[in-house]
Design brief:
With 147 residues, the protein is an alpha/beta fold. It is built from five helices and seven strands; from the N terminus they run βααβαββαβββα. Helix content is 26%, strand content 27%. Helix 1 packs across helix 3.
Length: 147
Amino acid sequence: MEYVSSSPEETFALAKKIAAKLPALCSDGLTLCLEGEMGGGKTAFAKGLLAGLHYAGEVTSPTFSLCNRYDADITVYHMDLYRLSGEDDLFSAGVLDHLEEKNTLSVIEWADRANGSLSGSMTIGFSYGAAANKRIITLPAILAEGL
């Protein structure tokens, strides 16, 4: 399912709505792979997810830390793989350590850099629309249902 966002605030609001569905899907751990070009809305989406999971603190991009942990309604690991260059980097950085924890959500920006190492995950795509401010967000059916 595709959604068109006209602003970071709209992307944030969409993610906040989706967040209501996530605790029920995270009993065995859930990984959301956020893929798309730089400036596509991945971090705004992650911030909206955390707001929807009642995290009130500041949410920052984990570009340099690789992984930020947030204690919200469920534990959220927000990761950014932009600086990694392959599967060896994933293992040495410990990025995959959290993916199978029960009752957790892993939100991974630039997940395509994992080269297929994130099996069992859901992918959310971000691409530019026809106008400069438009973003197309592609959601899996289970997350788009009822929005």
